[in-house]
Amino acid sequence: MALRLLTHFDVRADVLPSLAAEAGDTGVLETAYESLRVLNIERNGNIIYTYKDNKGNAVFGIYDCQTRQNEHLYTFEKDMQAVSCSVNSERTLLAASFVQYTKEGVRSELHPGSKCLTLLVEIHPVDSVKVLKAVDSCIWVQFLYPHAESHRLQSHLLLISEEKYIERFHIQITREDGNRVVIRNSSHLPRDRIAEDFVWAQWDMSEQRLYYVELEQSKSVLKCIQFWADESFTLMFEMPLDISLSGLRFKFVNFGYDYRQDQEKLCNQPSLCVFTNHTGSLCVCYSPKFDSWEEVTYSVFYLHKGYRKTFTAAPGSAGSHVAKGITFLNLGCLVAVYIPGHFLHLLNIQHPDLTCHSLFLTGSKMAAVLPPSPLQSLPGSLVLDCSSGKVYRATVDQSYLMWFLWNAARLDCDKMAALHCALLCGQDPGFQEDQVIQWICEHASACHSFDLIQELLIASSYWSVYPELADVDKLLAHSSVLAWNEEIPGVMLVTEELPLLLMKTPRLPARRPHHLHWGGAFHTNHHQ
User: What PANTHER family is this protein classified in (predicted)?
Assistant: First the structure.
């Protein structure tokens, strides 16, 4: 269909063969097959997974996406359920949090009076284990990764609690007896309180940014913190969002997948995610809780443009049942918004001003290729299928776009949008440029709102150079159309300006997160 998923990693296909070679025991493989799942994906693309061995011990491994090799990290010799895991860039330290499950539920046997245990482990070689937290609330862990290779003997670890606070631990290490890594002053690790009293948080592993929402006087305020390699961090901006998060269960995005959550309950909750790309686009996608499935509403805050667009659409054929909520996927210059089997919208976030540059598809076959299980959008157009443990690279299906242009594009807005989507894929292998030209030659006279040949020349010139020139949108026109007033059938649209500017601050000392001072304005281009 319009989207294509290319398998980037399959936790069973890429991990089980190496386990079979090591174990040589079918019983071990059967146990591992049932329990194998992805826990985290680090900034360098390496994938951390866990499984149970034949003794019920929790085993952690890592898949290196560059070498396509697996490495055993650590075995925790107790029958515990891993909630979260992260390893530092040097693979010398591992942090993990556990809960223990029985048929009756969670037991507090990990530590007196606690249900969740968070550990810091020396793994080069495996040596001491330090308890970071032993509490009744779940903890997620994430090591910070420097933007450049660093030889400093220090790591930084984020601890995210469902008690609505985030701490950063500073871990000094030394090397003894050659390459043996030992934690210095392990009995007292310095820490910072990064954020607290928030209701939602998202981790951007690629840019090392933390987005979170605080409720200030009943208003939802989005904040962004940038972590730097020199231990400092910056509050990049804060932005009031006119959204309702009432009924939202405390939620983390991209801090690993919480397998304990009830997916049927989650699908009827507000959804929120932040997407960026290399050209500087910054979008907030929001879907409220739905009281009725007769129509679906979602909003996209184009913070890099200074306005918000709210879309309302019917989910599909009359009487059809919607079992899942809206899913947002980051495809770079496009954001895919879909309900499996009902509709698929491809929003142009590079140039969102005119709706004719976005493609709105409806029908029972739309997005049918996408798995019905929960999906987690990752940087680089990657998508994690949380149930199967597969990581896909999502792309627009060029073959479908060409079929759509030849057979289904009746309206000028559909022709414009499909043409731009096809040209956006022009850098991909197998781009069918000759078919695009042939289609234009045969349909030039059938397009009444704009000149197809002129649009091809301008749009193809733009999309062919934009990957190399970050500021090309300020220099080149991307379309021959300057205004579009026609409605999109089946979609209602409301555009609202965002009145407040985004703000930024100078870089701050590493250990004073509570003294944040504004240092200037980040200007946005407001929609006219």
Answer: GAMMA-SECRETASE-ACTIVATING PROTEIN
Task: Band the pLDDT of 2: cuts 50, 70, 90.
Answer: confident
Question: What is the C-alpha separation between 52 and 79, in angstroms, rounded?
Answer: 8
Q: How far apart are the first and last CA of the chain?
A: 35
Question: Residue 469 and residue 464: Cα distance in Å, rounded?
Answer: 10
Beta bridge partners of 271: 287
Residue 486 · residue 413 · CB < 8 Å: yes
The CA distance from 97 to 139, in Å, is 6
pTM of the model: 0.88
8-state DSSP, 288: P
3-class SS of residue 360: strand
Distance CA 37, CA 389 (A): 6
Beta-bridge mates of residue 84: 97
Q: Round the CA-based radius of gyration of the chain to a whole number and report it.
A: 24
Q: Which residue has the higher pLDDT, 221 or 147?
A: 221
Q: How many CB atoms lie within 10 A of CB 101?
A: 12
**Residue 57 tokens, joined:** 């011990």
